[in-house]
Amino acid sequence: MAFLDFLNKERTIADGSFNRWLVPPAALAIHLCIGMAYGFSVFWLPLSRAIGIKDPQACAADMSLLSELFATGCDWKISSLGWMYTLFFVFLGSSAALFGGWLERAGPRKAGVVSALCWCGGLVISAIGVHQHQMWMMWLGSGVIGGIGLGLGYISPVSTLIKWFPDRRGMATGMAIMGFGGGAVIGAPLANELMKHFATPTSVGVWETFLAMAAIYFVFMMAGALSYRVPASGWKPAGWTPPPANAANTMITTRHVHVKRVWGIPQFWLLWGVLCLNVTAGIGILGMASPLLQEIFAGRLIGLDLAFNDLSVAQKAQTAAIGAGLVGLLSLFNIGGRFVWASCSDYIGRKATYFVFLVLGFILYASIPSLAHAGNLFLFVTAFCIILSMYGGGFATIPAYLADLFGTQMVGAIHGRLLTAWSVAGVFGPVLVNYIREYQLSTGVPKAQAYDVTMYILAGMIVLGFLCNLMVRPVADKYFMTDAELAVEKKLAHDRDASANGTGAAGAAVAVRSNPLVTAFAWAAVGIPLAIGIWLTLQKAAVFFK
Prior knowledge:
By secondary structure, this protein is mostly helical. The chain contains 19 helices and no strands. The longest helix is centred in the middle third of the chain and has 36 residues, at 313-348.
């Protein structure tokens, strides 16, 4: 349709005056919205009493999950609602893998618009599902359709940022993916305030909150998508010279692999394994952090020498508040780690950065049981914080790792396929952790020791990840596109050569003429909400230290 031509990739190719620092806030605008997927648990408790309002009206004990999807006369169980997390990450990975090739040719603007329609449209469908009390509509709306929006929104800026920042690939992707980790620190407090505002004697305020957040997110996501620009083929920052090909940087290629070939390349599967194992262990820690802290340290958290089962209801509420503070603290390290570790990888290399993750991760996972038994709360929490920083850092570093090995032409599509590792980890990690814990408790192991075996298993998974990373080598010549194949792919992707785009024959940028006030406003639009979210999370985390 002609009136939608402005979404076409060829209409988004920037001229030499475009300021590349406008692209990261555009990516953040989308990632901060879809990152609310991490904060969806804020809805579980209100939704578990959507009918009873004050007290849940329990479904029949023998009701199956399938029946619960369509039940209208009883409240949903939190365990059933929790399946939304699985749907989020399964469809994030599968949609990123399925539509990654289309994204490279259609461009980030069109992909960002589709992401906004799916994520926000999914929230609207979920709102209808809550109003009609049909859980299947929530699963379909936010889980399936919203999950597709997650996948497209997550990978939409990756290829673009790497091409705009060839001199700082890790830092660029770290800025955007930091937003995905930060989405919950903005969205969860916002959702809480909206639910309080909309709550009435006959409604817990969730469906109204979904509609309000859909409207807010749609504005931000569309602004971000429409702000995307892509550089002309061959563009490079003024004054920057690509490092020469030599033995010192054989892990960084100047050639390009087609996405259709990656399934058959050993390096792809090695990185798939590294990401899957690192994420599985990290998700396990993220999901168990609060109950683990409360059950291990129990009364010592509030100055009492009591086991968890010996605490009163009021005392357990105190420990729960401290556990929530730990979750807030971990979320900050998850966010910060995405930017800090990815930026560090620009200096020490991607493979070396992952070695740090895996070696340090093994030491920390293996030491957590000893720290718990010794009652050393400070070192115990420090270990968790470092682990979560590396969990986030792993996500932010992997796009640059892929660009180094497989080239930049189709890195967004290749990244999309690699994210299937996240889908697998999102299912396997929580199931593994919860099953082992339940088995330990069923055999009579005290709660304070029920996580020891889990930690040692996670440490073993980190060892496997180390071996995978150790085997990563430069990609063989036979897998790269020939010059003729690359020319065809650039034509299909509507690439325009920099020499024909006002940037000079060598592809170097001319002086930037964009208005600095526009750049400042773009950063303020995403920076101020993120700063508010971080401040609120710091206040929540402060409870942990009281």
